[in-house]
Amino acid sequence: PNIVSVSIKDVRAEVVLHSLEEKGIYVSAGSACSSNKPSISRTLKAIKVPKEMLDKTVRFSFSIYNTIEQIDYACAVMEDIIPKLMKYTRR
Asked: CA torsion sign, 72 to 28 to 55 to 86?
């Protein structure tokens, strides 16, 4: 089991989360330690995620049951959706 946090400049985590859901990929925003709290994650601050990226971080959680194909699919979807989402982001 492992967790990977990914921050995408200029794209809010909630937008990425919903875009991935549409493709059957389920991730979380922020860190597990803050999932039920409205404030910014202390965990992300502790690992020195820059302040401007705190609300732009999604969390992928993996288990022994995930396959390489599932991970490849998630990466391919991210490669596809992120440039599209960045076109519609206010800067």
From this structure: positive
Residues of the chain with pLDDT under 50: 34
User: DSSP states of 38-72 as a string?
Assistant: SSPPHHHHHTT--GGGGGGEEEEEE-TT--HHHHH
User: Domain holding 43: CATH number?
Assistant: 3.90.1150.10
Say which amino acid occupies 78.
Answer: M
What's the domain count of the chain? 1
Containing H/E element for 84? helix 68-87
Enzyme catalytic residues: 33
pLDDT of residue 34: 47
Domain span holding position 68: 2-87
CA–CA separation, 25 and 31 (whole Å): 17
